[in-house]
Every structure is written in C-alpha cells, then in structure tokens.
Design a protein that fits this description.
Layout: E1 9-12, H1 18-28, H2 36-43, E2 48-55, E3 59-67, E4 74-82, H3 91-105, E5 110-116, H4 120-128, E6 132-137, E7 147-153, E8 169-172, E9 186-189, H5 190-195, E10 204-207, H6 217-227, E11 231-233, H7 236-242, H8 245-255, E12 268-272, E13 275-278, E14 281-282, H9 287-297, E15 301-307, E16 312-318, H10 326-341, E17 356-360, H11 372-384, E18 388-392, E19 405-408, H12 417-427, E20 432-433, H13 436-443, H14 445-454, E21 462-465, H15 467-476, E22 481-484, E23 494-497, H16 500-510, E24 517-521, E25 527-534, E26 537-545, E27 554-555, E28 564-565, E29 568-571, H17 578-588, E30 595-603, E31 606-613, H18 629-640
Parallel strand pairs: 4-5, 8-9, 8-10, 10-11, 17-18, 17-19, 19-20
Antiparallel strand pairs: 1-2, 2-3, 3-4, 5-7, 6-7, 12-13, 12-15, 13-14, 15-16, 21-24, 22-23, 22-24, 25-26, 25-30, 26-29, 27-28, 30-31
Helix pairs in contact: 6-14, 11-18, 13-14, 15-16
C-alpha cells in the first residue's frame, strides 16, 4: 500500500485509533511492546501526550508517546513508531517536531529518548533533528541489547514564531466528499480539526462548515484556529458579524452605491473569496463590491440577492460547501487556488485620543464587575484628568459615535450586546476596554484553554469533548472534576462532578447549548489569586477565598438569585509570589493591550492558570485597597492613551 507524499496531520490520539495503534506497535516491535490497555490509559493521561500521524483516508501512519513527568524539567519520548508502508516519507520527522511542540507547551527545556546502540539509521535521524548522545545504557533493553540515551536542548525557542511553509487546511463536514480540494490543501472534517493535538501557527485554515451558528461545530473551528494562532477564514469575530443582522443591513447600505453603474443585475450571485460569479461567469463589474464584501466578512462563500429594479442589495448569506452545485464547486475550487497563492494581511484600525468616555453599565445586573462606589471613583478620576464619563446602557448603541472612548463595566459575552458595543467602537476607531478581541479570547473557555495550551501556560489537566467522547471520558477521568460550559461567567455554568454518572447527567442537557464542553481536574485551594494586568503589567493582586462551605469563591446554590461570596484580601505586588505574577503576565501576553484579571492557583508543583477574565472585578475596598484612587486613574489613562509608556500625550 503506497501513499502520495502528503504532509501528515499530527493530532491527539483518540479511542478510535486503538486498533491501528496496537497493530502498528506489534508490527514495529518484538520486545517491550505497549499493550492495548496501556494505550487506552495514555489517551487520557495528564502526564503523557499520545499523538498520531494521519494520512488521507484516516490512515494512522505513526505515533509518538511523550512523557511529561511533573518532577523533571525535561520531556521524554517513550516510544515512536512509523508504519512500514509509510517509512521514508518524513513521517518520523513530523512526529519528532510535534514532540518538541508538546515539550515547549509544558515549559520543558529538553527532550530525551533512548535508542538501540546498534540502530545507526535511527540514531542518525535523531541527530539530524538536533539530538546528541548523552550516555551509554548497557543491557538496557528487555533482550539484553545496549542502548544510548540522547538529549535535545530546546532553549528559548518557541514554535509559535516559526510559521513559513505550513500547508493550508480546508475544513469540511465530510472529508470523503471533498477530496477534490486536496490539491490546494489538507482536507479535514470538523471533528478531525477540533481533535488536533498540535497547533501550526501561521497556517491558513479555510472553514467550509455547513453551520456558522454561535457554538456550533463550524463556530468552534474558527474559534480554535484563532486560539492556535492560525489564520482562519472566516475568523471567529467574522462569524459573529455574519450572524448579526444589523451589520448585514449596514453592509447592504454601504455597498449599494457600488451598483449604480450596472445596466442590469442578476437575481443572485455567488462571491468566492471576493470574486463574484453568476451563471458560471465571472462578473468583473461587481469586483469592487465583491472585494468589499470579503473585506468585511472574510467568508469564503457568500450568496448575494439583488433587487433588480431598484438596483439594491436585498440579502447577504454565508453558505457552506454543501450548498454549491457541481459546476459552482469547480468555480470555487479555482477561486480557492488563487486565494491561497495571494494573501494580503488585514488592516489594523488606529485608536485616537479621548475626552468624553462612555461607560456601559447594567443597573439591574446581579453581580456587576464594579459596584456603585467603584463606578463613582472612575467618574471622579475622569474629572481629575479633565475628561468626563457618561453612563450608557444597552439601548444606547446608536449614540456611541458621540463619544471618544468606551469603557465596558457590564459582564461581557460574545452573543450579547456588550460584544456588539465593543465591535461598534472598533469600527468607529474609538478606544475601547474590553476590546472585541479580548472578549472573544476570554469569554469562551474552550478557546481560552486552547490558547493557553498552545502558548505553554500551565493549567490543570483539561479535556475538551463532544457527545461522542462523553462515555469514554466518564470512565477514565479522575474525580472530582470541574465541568464547564464554554461561555459561562461568574461561576455560573460550572459544576463539580464526583463520578462518571454525574458527569454524564450534567453534560447531556449542556450539549443542547454547545457542541463542545470542557472538563478540568479539580484543584482544591483555600483561595484563588486574582492578578489584575493592565497593558501587560501587574496592577493589583488579590486573594479570593472560597465561600464558606463551598468549593468556589461565589456560591449560587441558595436559589432566587442569591449569591454568597468568600472573603478577599488585597496584597502589595512586592508581597505576591513572583511565580504567580509571572504566569499571570504570560497568560495575557497574546491578549493585546487592555485590562485583564488572571485567576491563578498555587499548588505544590507550581502556579496554574485557571482563567483569564477580560472584564475583571474592580470593587471599592477590594481591588483598590492598595493603590486607592490611583488604580482608577491608571485604568482610564491607559484607555485614552495617556499612559506614561504610550508615547502619547493629550490635553483636555
């Protein structure tokens, strides 16, 4: 059996791979063979990563098993094997590079492995990728053969910055029906893409899923692509625009002047990566309109409906690949090829100074991010700066352009008016906290975990799963564990489960809200650290203690909206453990400029990041207990661009 020289997809192994793994193991080794039971255990082990290299046709061509012992600074490659039919095609190189990524993600500085002293060919491969002999291992193997330990020092490199030459990925619902697209990229199903265990930063991802609805699988493809530092079309923020009818109406109005010179219009047209087609023909006169549509929505396939007599746009709809006819599909394949050969970066909007600040609040919110005294402190700080704050609510979106900055002090969510306010501010080039990027990155826990993992930030053992993995995970998980709805906030939608039965019972109704859920190992501590980060630097440090008799800092179990809080204690940054501050800063490094709150747990093995909050609490007498009024001033100066490190000055 032979394969073309495809670049394999290296992904996390799944239960469905067990037969292939056992067969590959028995083919490759005569001694020290890993059993099926051991492979099954490695699938969910928190201290090991089992990765497989997959070729088209769901053929497992190799695997690599990486151990990450908690007590050591290094990672160890326990076993690696490539199927006989796939040897000589570079599969081993891809697996070894993936192992480097795994080690870096776990903050390991070196990788070790053992190889038979007599196997000069394999030793040569390891030397080629940077391994050097460390020491001899006499009679190391079960059959008495000598071994050699080899080591590779990773240094400070990170794979996130080495992105050239990545093969594009095209994500579809059913890979078997889309092999015609293999010429231009590696085709994966949505399930396969979501299961990938290793990021490929900088890689182009074309998301052709049938549904882009919020929290559907297609939505998660774009969300996780961004978390993995991959360039996805459409991006997760674009999907929210696609599903927001108000942006549709605005786009229709803005684009209609581009139709004025047309003698006639078709009833409908298809837009492939900004190129407009109708009845199998390219419509060059509509090229500016097509480019403008793609610039706004970044969607590979759009359907545009015209009102011919009035020369106006009636509707814009995002389509999945399954909606195209065979002839339309051929046109799309050509457009895909041209797009992948010539890609342009997206322009970045420029902020401007602010004198009048809109503060978005919800007076009826049960647990707002700032209490009334803190809101008043922000208002006083603005006056001291020569600016002013005006409180607005969800009905004031149309007024936003009147202001020079937006400060959101209401709990943020993606499918929510808070995100629409942030996007509107960005469109108007108005400085905003929280930025739409911060809301996107922080409010979905699946995205957040993937982003933290891809950047090597330590977290509790975490598993993202769908309905198919529920039974397997329920059997193999260590309890108690914490089950989370991806877009939960303020401890809501978070459940402590004590058994597999409870995990199944809790998960089933939650799957009606989201195609993916997240479960984390429970880490019991007396308090959580909350580190406030402003523009990449620590602002405050608080200890949030667990509510009395409860496992969280907030207890919602009383019913009727009642909430009980644990105690809190604010400490100076100099009295805060340096390793806690370090992981908090590292967790926000890719978030951009802004205000964040990082929840950290101290454990005997080090600090673990639990969450990053884009809209952290700032309450009078708590977070401001050390800095006082200076905290409010520093936040507002950062928002309007007056920070001492900004290189910007403004006069009010």
């Amino acid at each position: 059996m032979k394969h073309r020289a495809y670049i394999p997809i290296v992904r996390q192994a799944a239960r469905e791979d067990l037969d292939a793994l056992v067969a590959l193991e028995n083919e490759a080794f005569q001694h020290d063979v890993i059993s099926r039971r051991s492979f099954r255990r490695y699938l969910t082990s928190g201290s090991s990563r089992l990765l497989v290299a997959e070729l088209p046709g769901q053929t497992v061509a190799g695997y690599i098993l990486v151990h990450l012992p908690a007590s050591r600074r290094g990672a160890r490659i326990y076993s690696v094997a490539v199927a006989a039919f796939a040897r000589g095609h570079g599969i081993g190189l891809h697996l070894l590079r993936a192992a480097d990524d795994v080690a870096r993600e776990a903050h390991r500085t070196e990788v070790t492995l053992e190889v038979r002293a007599s196997d000069e060919r394999t030793r040569g491969l390891y030397e080629f990728v940077g391994y050097r002999e460390d020491r001899a291992l006499p009679s190391y193997y079960e059959d008495g053969a000598d071994g050699v330990r080899m080591v590779k020092h990773l240094g400070g490199q990170t794979s996130l910055h080495a992105t050239p030459g990545r093969v594009p990925v095209v994500v579809v619902d059913e890979r078997e029906r889309s092999q015609d697209l293999e010429t231009w990229g590696r085709v994966l199903s949505t399930a396969e893409y979501l299961a990938l265990g290793v990021a490929s930063p900088g890689r182009i991802v074309i998301n052709l899923s049938s549904s882009y609805e919020h929290m559907a699988r297609g939505y998660y493809v774009s969300l996780l692509a961004e978390a993995r530092a991959e360039r996805c079309f459409p991006g997760a923020d674009n999907l929210l625009d696609i599903n927001w009818k108000r942006i549709h109406r605005r786009a229709l109005t803005e684009l209609e002047p581009l139709l004025s010179g047309m003698d006639s219009l078709p009833d409908t047209a298809l837009v492939f990566f900004g190129k407009v087609y109708s009845d199998g023909m390219r419509l060059e006169p509509l090229s500016v309109m097509g480019s403008s549509l793609f610039d706004r929505f970044r969607c590979p396939i759009l359907k545009v409906t015209f009102r011919q007599r009035a020369h106006t746009l009636l509707d814009i709809e995002a389509l999945g690949l399954h909606r195209l006819s065979s002839d339309e599909r051929k046109l799309f394949a050509g457009a895909l090829s041209r797009f992948l050969k010539s890609r342009d970066p997206l322009p970045a909007p420029m902020p401007r100074a602010a004198a009048s600040i809109a503060m978005l609040v919800n007076p009826d919110e049960a647990v707002p991010p700032s209490d009334e005294k803190a809101l008043q402190a922000f208002e006083r700080a603005a006056l001291d700066m020569g600016a002013r704050i005006t409180r607005i609510d969800r009905g004031d979106l149309h007024r936003l352009a009147q202001f020079d900055a937006l400060f959101i002090r209401e709990t943020t969510r993606l499918d929510h008016h808070t995100y629409r306010f942030a996007r509107k501010a960005r469109e108007e080039h108005i400085p905003v906290y929280d930025t739409p990027e911060a809301i996107l990155k922080c409010t979905n826990k699946v995205y957040l975990f993937e982003m933290l993992r891809a950047r090597g930030i330590p977290t509790p053992p975490t598993f993202v799963f769908d309905r198919r993995r529920l039974s397997e995970l329920a059997r193999t998980l260590t309890y108690p564990a914490v089950l989370k709805v991806p877009d939960s906030a303020f401890s809501l939608g978070v459940h402590l489960v004590a058994s597999g039965d409870e995990l199944r019972d809790r998960s089933r109704p939650l799957f009606r809200e989201s195609d993916l859920l997240l479960v984390q190992s429970f880490v019991e501590t007396r308090f959580d650290w909350r580190i406030g980060i402003l523009d990449g630097k620590p602002l405050f440090a608080c200890q949030y203690f667990m509510a009395e008799g409860h496992w969280q800092i907030m207890d919602h179990s009383g019913g009727e909206g009642a909430v009980r809080f644990g105690d809190s204690r604010t400490v100076t940054l100099s009295d805060t453990p340096s390793h806690v501050l370090h992981v908090a800063r590292a967790a926000t490094r890719s978030m951009g400029r802004g205000l964040f709150g990082v929840d950290v747990k101290e454990t005997p093995t080090g600090a673990l990041v639990i969450e990053v909050n884009d809209n952290p609490n700032i309450d009078a007498g708590v977070e401001d207990a050390v800095l006082g009024d200076a905290l409010y001033t520093r936040v507002l100066r950062s928002l309007v661009g007056q920070g001492p490190d900004s290189g910007f000055s403004a006069h009010f």
